[in-house]
Amino acid sequence: MGQYVVRRLLQTLGMLLLLSILLFALVNLAPGGPLAGYGQSRHILPDRAEILKRQFGLDKPLTVQYLIWLVGNDWMRVDANGDGIIDGYGTRRGILRGDFGFSFRTRQPVLVEIRQRLWNTIYLMSVTLLVALGIAIPIGIISAARQYSLFDIVVTTFSFAGQAVPDFWLGLILILIFYGWLINPFTGEPLLPSGGMYSLESQLVVLDRIKHLILPVTTGALGWIAWYSRFMRSSMLDVIHQDYLRTARAKGANQRIVLFHHALRNALIPLVTLFALDLPYIFGGSVFIETIFAWPGMGRLYYQAATQRDYPLLIAILIIGAGLMILSNLLADLLYAYLDPRIRYS
Amino acid sequence: MSRKTLLRGLIMVCLLGILVFTLTSCQTAEKTEQTQSPQPVITDTKAPSPSSITILIAEDPPSFNAMISDTGYDALVMELAMLGLTDIDPQGNIIPELAAELPSQENGGVILDEENGTMSVTWKMRNDVHWADGKPVTADDVIFTWNAIKNPDTGSWIPGIESIDSVDKVDDYSFTVQYNTIYPGYLMQFGGEQLVIWPAHYCNADQGFAAWDCGRKPLSDGPYILEEWEAGDHMTFVRNPTYYQAPKPNIDQVIVRTVPDASVRKTMIIKGDADVIMWTTEPIVHDLENEANVKISFSPQNRWVMRLFFNTAAKGTVDSAATPHPILSDVRVRQAIRLAIDVDTISKNIWFGYSKPVWTEFFRYPYACDIPRTLYDPQAATKLLEEAGWTDQNGDGVRECHGCKSAEEGYPMEMELITYSEYGEPLVLTQQLIGEMLGKVGMKLTLTVVEGSVLWADSASGGIEQTGNFDIDLYDDGYGGVDPTDFIWSYYSADAATPDYGWNVGRWMNEDFNSLLNEAYTLDEAHRKEVFCQMAKILDQEVPMLLMFSTINAEAYSARLEGVQSTVNDLVTWNVADWKIK
């Protein structure tokens, strides 16, 4: 197993390097550029554009830009002011030394931009995922145990609806109902806030945080509940007809023991690996939910970087996301092998 | 470790992590950035009960330095905390801010050397303005700001920067700007909605104008001090007790919240959870106008004019002389398009009647020219197209060239009309309606919507306009401030037709116009206006670009507020110190 892990990690590094080349090329070669529509005016004048190109490093060939992005240019002598005279060493250290560059939009280091938003997204998405699992697993179990019952049919229908309903529509409807229409009878305020992470004036801090979580978590969890509950149901159905459960029943075990003590643990194995594959979403966030609920997270940051062609920030988010996806695949494989002794990697 | 234990452990760790995160991040409101503004020297003597308002914006400001990104959101917050030498009011009048008076030839502040075509401007500053740490705002700060801007490595650019030879200190509160040309826009060069004066003793020049830390943690000399900035969420400002217009500002606290969705912003102001929505668009204005607790402030002048850009060079080329556009190079066709578009119907049906017809670049104070409006007349358009050699002989509803100026015989009158996506539904509907109107006079338009960053990118990035890869574009634009000269140069001058050198993407060339443009660089206001009006006549005749209507510049605000005034010359917070809560 150890050799397998080492081999996969080495493969991961190789894949990330290839991905970095592909992503860098795709982002830079796609139509559009960071200087287009710059500012309130639709256009910027050429003198300003020239200064910005030099400051952004866009005046260099793409291969040189990639090299600087990867390994930095503090070992190279550069012409910083564009007068044709080499006048000093560069200031970039490259991503291999932890320097992801600076955002074209804010001029802040990219990692600072990401750090400002990352915890907000982890907070929201992890709560969403846990709520989704907490609801989906029991629903899946009950649906499987009472296959074709009214509960099963209703849940199945809502599952399909939940997967079909768009996040942005659901979020706006929830805001309309719980913020626009419904009133807290004790305070006269809207029942739930329209968005944001917390209220600036609230004294009941934990309660305030929970109130701000309700709508975005509900919006985000619905799709996941639908997905996981269907998967749980299917997994349970595979397990509950196994011979060892028939033996357990024959030996006098009640339905609760059969389901939760014997069946669930085996039915959860595929779900755990699925969960591991969904872990990158905790870091990536959701553009729709963060936009509708004004949540300052990674999803909005990514969308802004993409539409405004903030190349360093965009590439950093894509590379980090790709790395997390590869690692989560590895984690899923390892978890699966750990939980199911029948699985062995050579 | 057993599998059960592992699973239980994982679940407990996750739950514990969330609980700890929730509790610890709540103990103090999570502040991504805490300002480092030093304690003010003067004790606040205002009454203790704090008044507070909330301004909603769609995007987090990149920094306080509007010169760097100019998103508008940066300028909004910049106006809260910083001052420039001058500013502009909504009527277009330039007002002194840090300047004690506006330099002019009459008061000796401006000295012209007409023989050499140069000038010098001596500014006198107020001596009663202080930074929040108590230090005075002086000429040293102006020169520091200028040196930082012009630094070739880390600086930026301001309009007319190439016209300035030097900025020299005279004494602590005055300095002289030496120009190598006659530059009419001198009054707004160190002020307005983009440029403020930065503190020499606080900002780190080594970090550079574009990226210095004080751009995100400013030292205020304006009405408010930045107290807290939660990136992507909100900024909290508190009154600056050292503000030179004490006892203003009237409101103790201003919170700027980022709420990206327009309908959520609308709902919040209706519910009373917000006091101002920056840049309220026509559909939202229409929804809010009947709300009892919401008012709308319209800018008395308009800036953004919806216009059609005609490419007079063949699609995919950039030389209108060598490869003229087969259809649009004929001025009669452009005039016919103007006759065929019913601007009033577009305004009424799509823009809720808020837009106003505009048909000349020179429609704003102080350079409004009397150019008669060409009214909607599809019959006249048809007649003009037939005179130009475009007739429909095969009866398919689309005209072909039969004796036209620049196309081959039988060439169909088909073109592509491009607009950009970020504006939203009103612009796309306008595009569709224009397509229908021109279809009725025998032009077939293919409608395309692209990202703005693709439409306006430079030619190396595949920019549609700079590569000439379009027939007709549709979007709004207009100049900030009161001086249209740079804007007109960038859109109509022959030099600006060179790819990536300007924005004359229609490649329109007119020698008379270029000569007049050069004459516009004068301080003689009467002559400038005369020149502009002659230019207006040429534009009206030639129609290199079809101006149609202006879109509103408006802000929705709570009825409990007084003093809010929208303006195209600045952001709505231009007079925030004067706002009051009723």
Multimerization status: heterodimer
Structure summary, number of beta strands of chain B? 24
Distance between the termini of chain B: 67 Å
Beta-strand percent range of chain A: under 5%
Main sheet strand line-up of chain B: 1-9-10-11-2-12-22-13
Radius of gyration of chain B: 27 Å
* Helix/sheet category of chain A: mainly alpha
Low-confidence segments of chain B: 24-47
How many helical stretches of chain B?
A: 14
- The DSSP helix count of chain A reads 12
Mean pLDDT of chain B: 90
Give the CA-based shape of chain B: globular
Provide the residue-averaged pLDDT of chain A.
87
Mind summarizing the main beta sheet of chain B? 8 strands, mixed
Strand content range of chain B: 15-25%
The sequence of SSEs of chain A as H and E is HHHEEHHHHHHHHH
SSE class of chain B:
alpha+beta
Largest sheet of chain A: 2 strands, antiparallel
Describe the strand arrangement of the main beta sheet of chain A, using strand numbers. 1-2
The end-to-end span of chain A amounts to 7 Å
- Helix fraction of chain A, binned, reads 55-70%
How would you describe the overall organization of this protein?
The complex is a heterodimer of chains A (346) and B (582). Chain A has 346 residues and is mainly α. In chain A, 68% of the residues lie in helices and 1% in strands. Chain A contains 12 helices and 2 strands; from the N terminus they run H-H-H-E-E-H-H-H-H-H-H-H-H-H. Chain A has helices at 2-29, 46-56, 62-71, 110-145, 150-164, 167-181, 205-240, 243-250, 255-284, 287-292, 298-307, 311-339; strands spanning 77-78, 88-89. Chain A has a two-stranded antiparallel sheet. Chain B has 582 residues and is α+β, with helices and mostly antiparallel strands. Chain B is built from 14 helices and 24 strands. Chain B has helices spanning 3-27, 66-69, 73-81, 139-150, 262-271, 282-288, 331-340, 343-350, 378-387, 425-440, 452-455, 485-492, 511-519, 525-542, and strands at 33-34, 52-57, 86-88, 94-96, 110-113, 118-124, 164-171, 174-179, 224-230, 234-239, 253-258, 276-277, 294-298, 305-310, 356-357, 390-391, 400-401, 414-420, 444-450, 472-477, 545-550, 554-558, 561-562, 580-581. An 8-stranded mixed β-sheet of chain B has the order 1-9-10-11-2-12-22-13, with helices on both faces. The model of chain B is unreliable at 24-47 (pLDDT under 50). At the A-B interface, helix 2, helix 4, helix 6, helix 7 and helix 9 of A face helix 1, strand 11, helix 5 and helix 11 of B.
